[in-house]
């Protein structure tokens, strides 16, 4: 893989990534699973957009809103990335991800009156569905519980 020009503008191809992956001493099964996941992540539009949004939000610096907002916490970014790793395209078709000024992420449903706040160690949510309110605060974070909650309330 020869690099020319400005490395900051380099975007590896799927082939480049797979060549690198196959150079790592891990099992063939793991390599194949990673390859399938990479294809899924770049070919499913809602999931790919969620990844792109998280990547963009990870670059926010202090005072990104001109009002003293904090950059997104590295632990929050790790949490959302762990959720994305176990997600399907359909999980992200109706959710928007946005930064909160307190270093967390906010998610809003495009279909229901639901919102979720994701922090470093916990999350909270509120939804009004069929006239009924459901809410929870300070729920201990785990990727699977967070994803299950998104599916339930979205």
Can you give a write-up of this model?
It is built from 6 helices and 5 strands; from the N terminus they run αααααβββββα. The protein has 154 residues and is α+β, with helices and mostly antiparallel strands. It has one domain (44-153). Strands 1-2-3-4-5 form a 5-stranded antiparallel β-sheet. The longest helix has 16 residues, at 28-43. Mean pLDDT is 86; it is low at 1-5.
Largest sheet: 5 strands, antiparallel
Q: Into which percentage range does the β-strand content fall?
A: 15-25%
The chain-level mean pLDDT equals 86
What's the number of extended β-strand segments? 5
Structural class: alpha+beta
N-to-C order of helices and strands: HHHHHEEEEEH
Number of domains: 1
The oligomeric status of these chains comes to single chain
Layout of helices and strands:
Blueprint: H1 14-23, H2 28-43, H3 45-57, H4 74-85, H5 89-92, E1 95-99, E2 105-109, E3 113-118, E4 122-129, E5 132-140, H6 143-153
Antiparallel strand pairs: 1-2, 2-3, 3-4, 4-5
Helix pairs in contact: 1-2, 2-3, 3-4, 4-6
């Amino acid at each position: 893989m020869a690099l020319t020009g400005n490395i900051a503008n380099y975007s590896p191809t799927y082939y480049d990534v797979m060549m690198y992956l196959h150079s790592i001493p891990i099992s063939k099964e793991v390599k194949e699973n990673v390859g399938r996941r990479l294809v899924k992540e770049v070919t499913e539009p809602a999931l790919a957009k969620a990844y792109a949004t998280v990547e963009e939000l990870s670059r926010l610096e202090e005072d990104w809103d001109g009002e003293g907002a904090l950059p997104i916490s590295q632990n929050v970014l790790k949490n959302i990335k762990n959720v994305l790793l176990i997600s399907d395209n359909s999980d992200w078709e109706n959710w928007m991800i946005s930064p909160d000024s307190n270093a967390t992420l906010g998610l809003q449903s495009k279909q229901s009156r639901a919102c979720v706040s994701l922090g470093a160690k916990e999350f909270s949510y509120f939804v009004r569905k069929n006239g009924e309110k459901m809410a929870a605060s300070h729920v201990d974070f785990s990727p699977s519980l967070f994803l299950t909650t998104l599916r339930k309330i979205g």
